[in-house]
Every structure is written in C-alpha cells, then in structure tokens.
Amino acid sequence: MSDADDALVVFTPSGRRGRVPLGTPVLEAARALGVDIDSVCGGRGLCGRCQVDLCEGSFPKHGVESRAAHLSAKCDTERTWERRRGALCEGRRLSCSARVLGDALIDVPPASQVHRQVVRKRAEVRDIELDPSVRLYFVQVREPDLQVPASDLRRLKEALACEWHFGSLEHDIRVVQQLQEALRRGHWGVTVAIYDNTRIIAVWPGFQAQVYGMAVDVGSTTLAAHLCNLQTGEVVATAGRMNPQIRYGEDLMSRISFIMMNPGGEQAMTRSVREALNELTVELASEAGVPVEAILEATFVGNPIMHSLMFGINPVELGGAPFALATDEAIDGLWATEMDLVIHPNARVYGLPCIAGHVGADTAGAILSETPYLGEELMLLVDVGTNAEIVLGNRHRLLAASSPTGPAFEGAQISCGQRAAPGAIERVRIDPLTLEPRFKVIGCDLWSDEPGFDTAIGPCGVTGVCGSGIIEAIAELFLAGVITPDGVVSGALAEQTPRVVADGRTFSYVLYREAARTLAITQNDIRAIQLAKAALYAGIRLLMERYGTDHVERIRLAGAFGAHIDVQYAMILGLIPDCDLDHVTSAGNAAGTGARIALLSRKARRDIEDVVRRVEKVETATEPHFQAHFVEAMAIPHRSDPFPRLRERVSLPVSDHAASRRGTGRRRRRQRQPG
Amino acid sequence: MSDADDALVVFTPSGRRGRVPLGTPVLEAARALGVDIDSVCGGRGLCGRCQVDLCEGSFPKHGVESRAAHLSAKCDTERTWERRRGALCEGRRLSCSARVLGDALIDVPPASQVHRQVVRKRAEVRDIELDPSVRLYFVQVREPDLQVPASDLRRLKEALACEWHFGSLEHDIRVVQQLQEALRRGHWGVTVAIYDNTRIIAVWPGFQAQVYGMAVDVGSTTLAAHLCNLQTGEVVATAGRMNPQIRYGEDLMSRISFIMMNPGGEQAMTRSVREALNELTVELASEAGVPVEAILEATFVGNPIMHSLMFGINPVELGGAPFALATDEAIDGLWATEMDLVIHPNARVYGLPCIAGHVGADTAGAILSETPYLGEELMLLVDVGTNAEIVLGNRHRLLAASSPTGPAFEGAQISCGQRAAPGAIERVRIDPLTLEPRFKVIGCDLWSDEPGFDTAIGPCGVTGVCGSGIIEAIAELFLAGVITPDGVVSGALAEQTPRVVADGRTFSYVLYREAARTLAITQNDIRAIQLAKAALYAGIRLLMERYGTDHVERIRLAGAFGAHIDVQYAMILGLIPDCDLDHVTSAGNAAGTGARIALLSRKARRDIEDVVRRVEKVETATEPHFQAHFVEAMAIPHRSDPFPRLRERVSLPVSDHAASRRGTGRRRRRQRQPG
Q1: Is the domain covering A220-351 a CATH 1.10.287.370 domain?
Q2: Which residues lie within the region annotated Disordered (chains A, B) (predicted)?
Q3: How confident is the model at residue B663 (pLDDT cuts 50, 70, 90)?
Q4: Domain covering B128-205 in this structure, CATH number
C-alpha cells in the first residue's frame, strides 16, 4: 500500500485512471474519473447496481499493484444488502460501499454499466447501446421547514439537482398530485422516473428497483409484444395474440371498407385492438411477475393502417389514392392514458414513424433493426405480407416502396392453400425423373417418404399447403420441367405420370391424394403466385432502376414469410433478384425487433426519425415502368434477367426465350423430362 | 402620384416608413416594414382583422401627400367581405386587399394591432399588452400528391412555415386524429390554434374566426369567471356562483377536517368544484353566444387549498405546520381534459403559482394586477378573507405573509353579523353628542334617519350587520367615546343613553331595535374584531419591520372586503398602518384581474413566475416578534403607533396610554361624551 494520502485507481474496460484521496468510495472515484457505473439509489447500498470486481495482482500494463486489502472491508450496508439479496461473489463489491485504501485495478462488469450493450443473437447485426428514455432515481428529500418555505416539488427538484445533477426538470401534473403522499409514506425518500432526462413522470415512496417497457408489433393478423427490463435490456416476457379486428375483415382493405360502410367503425376497431393489447399486457406482466404499473414505456410498430387505428386515427384516407398519411412523424411522448393502456398511467408511448401511405412504421422498425443506412453494402430489405414493403439502399441513399403482391404468398387465393399451421405442407421436393413428390408438413420432422410418416403426422393428416410449401412446389415443378418458364403446366406430361391431370382446359399437378382430400397445384394457383411474385420483383426492380443498379449485395427477408421460406426456391421462382445465396437471409420479425430497439435506445429513435425523413418514397402504382417490369417478371425466374449467381448453384431449365434464341431450348428441356 | 415604380408608405402610430413597389398590398407593405397588423386569414379577405385607415391630405411632418386614389379601388374580395360583415367606414380598407398605387399615410387603429393595449378602467394601473398563448391561423394546405408523398401533417406544417413563418412546430396527437377530416371538409383550408408559438393544439375545417379564454377565481365561497375574446382582450361575459364545496364545510379548515375524517373526500371536493365550474362555463358561453369548444384556454387563481382541490391535489398538508405546498411553480400547459373541463378538449390550462402554504395563487394574481414589483413606491397590498394575505414591497424587494385574522371581518363570530347581502347594515354613523346611530343597509340608498327609510328597506327589514358595517360601528363608537382605546364599552354611559346596556358583566351598544330583532355590538363582538385586526396589523408590521420601514407609501385593499370597506374607518380601527388616506384604495377583485391578465399575456405569466420566485416568504406563526406586535395592535388604533397622517384628517380620542402619559386623556374623553 502506498504511503501517500491518495492512491491510483484504474478502471477496466474503460482504462480510465487517476489518483483519489484514500477513503474515497469506489463509486465516487469512478464518477470523478468519468467511468460509467450504474446506480439507482445514489450510492446508498440499496439497488446493488454498482457492483465492481477488484482484480488482484500485479498489472505492469496498467502500472498498478492491486490487492484485496486496497479496498475497505465490507461495511454494514454491504452486509445488509448481501443478507437481503444474496452473497456477492469473491472479489465483487458494491462500489458505493467499498472505499479506496490503496492502488487498485477495478473492473466494471457489463451489468453494472449504464450504457451497456444489449447483445443481439444474430451475428450480422450490431448490438444496441442501452439508453432508455425512462430511468429511475432514488433521492432523499429535505423535510419541509416552516422557516424556509419551499414546496415539496421544489425540494424534490433540489435533491435531484444535488444528487443526480439534473438542471431544470419539467414534471407531469400527476406527479404533483402524488408527490406529497409518496414523500411522507417513503419518509422523504422517493424514487422518481425521469423521461428523456428532462421530465419527472412518476414518483413512488421509498426505493423502487425496477422499470419495464413494452415493444409492440401491431400486425393485421397478430399482435406481438415483448416486455423488457429497461435497466438491463433483457426481454422478460413475450406474448402474442390474434388482432381482434379480424372480426371486421380479414385483410386491410376489408377493414377500410367496413369503416366506409359503418361510420364510427374506426373507433370500434381502435377500441378492440387496444383491449386486446391490454389483455396481452396483463399476460406479459403476469408471466414476468411484474405489476403492470411498473411498465413506464411502450413502443409501437405497425403498417400504416394498423398504426393509425392503434393511435386513434381514422385510416380511410389510406384506402385509396393518394394514400395520404395523417402524419409521417414519430408519435413521441404520448401519455399512455391517451391510448387507454393499462400500464402506468403516466407511462409514455412512442410510435415509430410511418414512411408513406403503404410503407409503415413496421418498415421503419425493420430498417432500424437491419440498419441498411449504416453500411456501404447495397441492401435489399423485403417484408412480404399482403403488400410487400421493399427497402433498397445503403448509407448514401435509401429508397422504399410497397408493391401489391396480394395474399397469395400467405396461401390465400391458392386452391390447396392454408395458413402456416400443423398439417400444412411446408417443404416439397419433386423427382425430375419420376416426377413423384415428397414433402414435409408443419409439426412433423419426417419427410413423407420416410417410414412412420403417416403415423407421425397424427390424426388430422395433411390439410393443405402453406406459403413456403407453394413456393417450393412450384419451383420444384419448374426445375422438373413440369411447368414451363411461362408458368404453364405441360399437359403432354399427363401421358407420362398420373400426377399431371387435366382440369378443364388446363392441367394440374397432384401433390397429395388420399381418400378424403386431394391437394393439387392448379394452373390458377401458379398464375396467382406468378402475379404475386411479378409484383414483388417489379417493385424491387423499380427501386434498383431508381437507384441505378442491376445488382444488390445483400437481401434480408423480414417477417414470418421470410423466416419460413427457403431463399433458394424464392430466387428460383424469381421473387427476389439474383444475389449470392449466402447473402440472402431471413431477418426474423425485424419490425418487432425495431420496436424493441426503439424501446431501449433514445439514440435509435432519433436515428430512425432522421432516416425515415431521408427515405426516397417510390410509388409503384403510378410509375410508368412498373408495368413493363411486371410483365417481364411473370416468367420463371424472369424473362430477361439472367440470374448468373443462382445458375452457379442451381441448374435452371433454359427459358423459352433463351432457348428460342439459342435454338436448342425446347429440345434440351424435353431431354430433361424423361418421365 | 409619383411617376416612379415604387411609392412611399408611412404607417402610424408606429411611424415606420419605406418605399414599396406599386401594387403591393398594404398588409404586405406593413409586414415588410415590421408594422404590427393583425390577421387570422393570412390576407385572404376573410377575417377582416387587418383594417387600416387611409389618411387623406398633405402631411409635411411625414413628408407625404396621401390621397384616396393612392390605394387601389375596392376589389371583389373587399366588397364580398362588406356584404357579409357590413360596410367599412369612409377611408377604412382591408389592408390585405388595398394595394399601394402612390404615396400614402396609413393609420393602423388599435383594434387591428396584434399587440394592442387592453385598456384597464382604473387610472393607477397599467394597460395590458395583448399577447395570448393561443392564436388562430388560417392556411391553405397543398393537396396530397401520390408522386410526392408527404403526410397531411407535414403539408400543414409546410403551409404554416410558408404563410406564417413558423419554424418547427410541435403538435398534439389529437390534432393528428382530427386533421384529415378537417382538411377535406375545409377543401384544404383549415384554421389551426397554435399555443405559445410552438405547438398546434387544435384544427378546424375552413376559416374559424374566434377564440376565447376563461379566467377563473376559485374562492372558498364563490367561483367567479370572466370569458374573454383572446383576439381583442374584451370581456364578453362574467358570471359567478357558490363554491359547492361549502357543503363539506363553510371555511377552509372545516374542509380540510372533512378530508381527514373522510379519506377520498378530496376527490369528491375536486369533482364538485369542477362540476360547478363547468356549469358556470356553459352559462358564460351561452351568455356570450359562443360555443364552449371555442374556449381554448383557462387560467386559474385561488388560495392554496382551493388551488390544490381544483388541480386534483390533496390539500391536507396545508392543514397543519409546516404547511408544505405540493408545488410553488405555475401549472402550465395542462390539458383541459386532465381537469374534466367542458371547454375545447385540447384547450390549455394555466394555474398561477402559489407563493407559500398560506399565500396562494390568488395573491400572485393580486400582485400581477397591482404590480408592486414594478415601481419605486413602497406598496402594501392586503387581501382580507379568513386569512389576510399581505404583500409589501416595490421593485427592489417584495415580502409576503399570511395572518390568521379569522372570519370576524366577514361578519362571522359577531353576534349580529351576517354576510354582505340585502338587509345588512353596511354604513354606520354615531352622533358623538347624543350617541344615537344612523345607518344604511345594503339594497337601500337612504340613511336610516331619512324619510321613507322604513318602507324603502322592504318587508325583510334590517337583518344584521355585515363586515364593513361592523368596522364602521366600532370605529364610530370609538370616535364617540363609547368604547375606550382598549376596546371596552364604557358601562358608565348606560346612565346617559339607553343604547348602552348591561350584558352580564360587560356592556353592549344597541345599534338597532325593533319588535322582532335587536342588533347590538357586544363586548365580545368588539373583542373578535380587535383580535382580527390585531392579527392583520401585526402581520403588516412584521413585514414592515423585515423590510426596514415604519411607513408605507400606498395601500391597496383587494377583495370584496377591500371594495366595501371605508378605508378611513379601517385606519381608525387600526386594521392598516398610517398612510395618506388618498393613497389607500380598493383594488377590487385583484386576484381575478390577475387571472385575466395571465389569460391575455404570456409575458405576464413569465413576470409573475419570476416575481413569485423572488418573494420573501415570512411565516407569521413562528416569528417571535409577531406576538409583541399583536399585543400592541389590540388597542384602537394602536397602543404605540402614532398615526400622524390619520390624525391630520380625523380627530382621534387620546389613548389611555397617551392620556395617562399626558395626564389629560380621561378628562378629555369625558368632555367629549356629554350624552
């Protein structure tokens, strides 16, 4: 130990260092040196958030001899905390209680850092720096004094200025209404929630340890929500439920129609979605063992119509051209009570901004999650639903459009189509020689040609084909030569295989047949998928043209469709442009992740608000080139685009056009179809 | 007319001048030259607020030859406006329609100035410069365009930036919820209300001409409210009603007791006062022929307990030491719906700040009205109620205190006392020779010794004595020598006059006697008044002592008591310190006037917030000198203060002390009582 009256303290991982007087609490030393250590209780040994590790030994790199004896022994406060919350590991101390008695190397573990990184599972995306809007602060407030009259609020603000260095703070009237009782019940110690470093929005008597937030993805079909601990970024509960608006219409347009036919219907829809969300909230809170009043923030994403209805805006204008949004700004700092939410009444709500009439806050969420705006790489981000939202760009430029794919990719408009649910065929392979299929159904790990499949699929059996199953079936039929690049089922094959059957003037391919049920891919089914994929591809192509490129470097497929689809088949069918297949991946529920990022990071909110403002909106409906792109994209994979990277991996049948140009196509295709 | 392609325009009263191109609309010229002309419609000839007068003639002082022909002839817009709203006077024009065709001298009448002065009736107070928080702006918004997608809100803000030069504006979510319908119903023309130049708080389709505000004084006994046109400052309706909280207790302390005995009682009281206010609001609006939704602002004053209950704050802490206020800041920008008010749901509420636990927002209002903080003169401002609020100071220093006078001045605790109402004696004179009284009652112009009095007072007759009557009665009794400076009714006089009668061990003075009713001033009544006035005077003296003065230059008496009392009698009794009587005047309902000033002027709000922060709060209850001052002040007018200025006007009986010092007092007094 040094003989001096001060000592050297070095903090890792920051590397900050300096001499402090002997006896200084480690937390105070850290603050003096600008080291980031969390604390809610302000160094009173209540919250336990300021834990640090003393590193024992010689550290020539840091020039410090660090010994256990260089920190004071555990004091009563620390022991009391351990009795209440469990013993600290060897070498770990509450930095507010441990005092510096000599040179020391002190490590601040991630959990004790205010601005810690929230680790995301996928390797390709950045971690989030935790920086929530709402933070808790415990303060001990001076008692009122008849001689020096100052209101309770004034003395609270003085305490916050003195202990936490808040300059001038605003406050909600509701805090004033609750303050006096809280101060007296807490014996002048209260915990306050401060929003955005500027405004006191809640107060509790005594020490309140935890604060939560909720990230909500309002889909047309489902509501999905994460409950997060705002101090750790951790997701403590996740839940979903159907959007009860479905009773007003399955898809968005039928809901708009309902409103147009039933004035005031928008209010009923707003009520119903908010009620469902409140049920979901209670479920989340109960799952996590947290009172709903501990939820101080909520963030929302949704397509423009869901977003409008959630925020009480009539969406009828989004039902027709010119598709004017009420607002394309973020909805910021709204009181939860304005939305009738059951969380803390003073909680704040943040809605990510919508981008355009057809490109919603869900797309903004996906952009925030996938961050195309940060890199040099040209990224294509696609979220396929009833409409496909398409984003293309990089840090220099970002374009967005929506393309009316219709619901075919979700199994609607398909004769054998169904939602992705147990019993639905999701994977399909077709033998190019025998033209016989094999497949997998959701809820069963076996392929249909494996032993035990019939029993493994259970009594319900095979019930239909979901979106990814249809994509694979059609792509495999194309690879096997059953359908032409123009999408026509070759009737000639009916002679070679009982799978190809006449269906009026066209032909179908029978994927599955049993006593009760026949599942066939009809010519109409193929047309429906062609129309959908042509719309998607044309939209993408339009953005690429606008950007001035004919090649994208990375493709991210967001949403449930993107998560279930096999990207190779998607590319064979020509849903997406040619790209190195290793660079084509699912982004999961990127919109929901965006909502969660916005919940955890104020900076992310400002980022996405800036980005959305810069996005170039492209209206596919009125773009003259769209129609030409659409027609070209009807072919499988495409009438003119060569897909060279795909061809390196997959041997595609030669297209009619290419074949006729080369004069060999038809023959070659026939050669590949030897029954 | 000049041959040049521009012309000289001179505006009065500002004197601003400059050359503008021929053909420039006068409104545009005015704006270019920084002349203050009002407009809501932005120069579209809708609002008629921009009227100006062309001054015809030669004006060598301004160097201008101004002719009628130097403005363009009336155009269709102007004629349409005249058809709708009535012909403009000779020479008067809509400045948005009249164009400059030659040199012109143009007068902007007060009604056309944005920052016009609101004239106050009393000579001694300053006019208010009109500058309300809420102002209306009409804009024509660009229609939505599929090619250039921008939300309705964004295009609205663009229009506000372009037409009215608003930079970045915030907005209420409710505006977003109403915007799309308003724009379409108004054919893309909407009027918005902008709060504090920073936030859009309401939107209406088309042109909306008028916006109102409400100033409310929440008294323990009565609610009083003014409805004001925020564009002119004019009071368009005034109304009052009982505070229904009276059912929970007559005075403040009994209401606090009710809450302490009935948990939740504060909520019932909050509800009841808000309901009464809403009834009052409907009455005001209907009287003025204005829809309640046109009321976009409300300001409030009240004593700390009324203020708390109105704003939903439990006032129990104000019921006992240390009398801690929940907040001593202004309540600013609160949504009307947070207070369940029936005015426009997006209206904003402003509550003037309370100063200390016993010195409320009503005192802040009185300070704002009387502006002691502006002058050099040392002003004493007193508002007498159950407590007396006392403010002393000038621009250098301001002190405030509350003194517990009790309700005696309001006629309570007085045997013959009653509220100021028809039938109550309000003026009293006592003949020093005969000791016979004469008096006036409220509701009758005749003195009691004038012919016809008995019939003029009507069937109810004389029912009691109100506060000002008691003050006068006791002061006259003192002047007539019936009571000593110590406040004792001289029993010896019972031999000289039947008016003085024994009442147990003390004596009373019979002011009025008829078959049904005897009204007498008892010894107890006099004691009650002495206690009250001693408390008031001691509080004043304490502030004077703290300030370091023994003389005030001006005394302003606020409230109903101040309006009815004869200041000379108040001084004779020693309620207020010696002062030139010409400088002692009633301030009327200064608190309510303060609320109205805060309604009309943003600057006034900032002023009073600053002033209140600077006020030195003096707590009379714990001040050691208070008791000594109190004892001295029990005497009439005072045991030791000489009241030289009063004595110049009124011959006061020599006090016992002074008399005994001079050895002549008793004799002299006896000489003045010759029955």
Answers
A1: no
A2: 647-675
A3: very low
A4: 3.10.20.880
* Structure-block tokens of residue A376: 């040099």
- Cα B284 to Cα B289: distance, rounded to the nearest angstrom: 8
Peptide bond into B110 cis (omega under 30): no
- For residue B178 the two structure tokens come to 């109403």
Sign of the alpha-carbon torsion through B515, B520, B522, B527: positive
Cβ pair A188, A143 in contact under 8 A: yes
What's the gap in Å between the CA of B484 and the closest CA on chain A?
Answer: 37
Residue the block writes with tokens 């920052």: B115
**Cβ-contact B299, B352 below 8 angstroms:** yes
Q: What span, in angstroms and rounded, lies between the C-alpha atoms of B145 and A45? A: 60
Got the DSSP string for A387-412?
Answer: SEEEEEE-SS-EEEEEE---GGGGTT
Please tell me the distance from the alpha carbon of residue B625 to that of residue B538, in angstroms, as a whole number. 9
Instruction: Determine whether domain B212-351 maps to CATH 3.30.420.480.
Output: yes
What distance in Å separates the CA atoms of residue B21 and residue A404, rounded to the nearest whole number?
54
Considering only residues B70 and A42, tell me which one the structure prediction assigns the higher pLDDT: B70
Contact B323 A147 (CB under 8 A): no
**Average pLDDT score over residue span B411-438:** 91
Identify all chain A residues contacting B151, using CB atoms and an 8 Å cutoff: 324-329, 354
Q: A6-12 and A104-107: which strand pairing?
A: parallel
Provide, as residue numbers in chain B, all residues whose Cβ is less than 8 Å from the Cβ of A154: 327-329
- Name the DSSP letter for residue A303: -
Q: Is B340 on the interface with A (CB under 8 A)?
A: no
Q: What is the DSSP string of A445-457?
A: -S-TTSTTHHHHT
Q: What's the rounded Cα separation, in Å, for the pair A421 and A222?
A: 14
| ipTM, 2 dp | 0.88
What is the band of B620 on the pLDDT scale with cuts at 50, 70, 90? confident
So where are chain B's domains?
A: 6-112, 128-205, 212-351, 369-407+528-665, 411-483+491-518
Give the residue from B347, B349, B265 showing the smallest Cα distance to B305.
B265
Token pair belonging to B287: 């009287």
Angle, CA of B621, B626 and B630, to the nearest 5° = 115
Average pLDDT of span B403-432: 89
Residue of A150, A311, A324 lying closest to B152 (CB–CB): A324
Contacts of B256 in chain A (CB under 8 A): none
**Which of the two residues, A123 and A169, has the higher pLDDT score?**
A169
Q: Determine the residue among B142, B145, B148, B151 to mutate to test chain A binding: the one whose Cβ has the most chain A Cβ atoms within 10 Å.
A: B151
- Give A272 to chain B, closest Cα distance, Å: 17
Facing B144 at nearest CB: one of A146, A181, A324: A324
pLDDT digits (tens, 9 = 90+) for A454-472: 899 888 889 999 989 999 9
* Six token digits for residue A351: 């809605």
Residue that is written with structure tokens 């390196």 in the block: A648
Chain B contact set for A149 (CB, 8 A): 322-325, 328, 356-357, 617, 619
A to B CB pairs, distance under 8 Å: 133
Q: Identical fold at B6-112 and B212-351?
A: no
Give B 21-80 residues with CB within 8 A of chain A.
Answer: none
CATH superfamily assigned to domain B6-112: Beta-grasp domain (3.10.20.30)
Structure tokens at B324: 């801690």
The CA-atom distances, in angstroms, between A299 and each of A227, A236, A355, A580, B202 are: 11, 16, 17, 35, 25
CB B316 within 8 A of CB B260: yes
pLDDT of the residue at A411:
79
Which residues of chain B from 154 to 183 reach within 8 Å of chain A, CB to CB? 154, 173, 176-177, 179-181
Give pTM, 2 decimals: 0.88
For residue B630, the SS3 value is helix
Cis bond upstream, residue A637 (ω within 30): yes
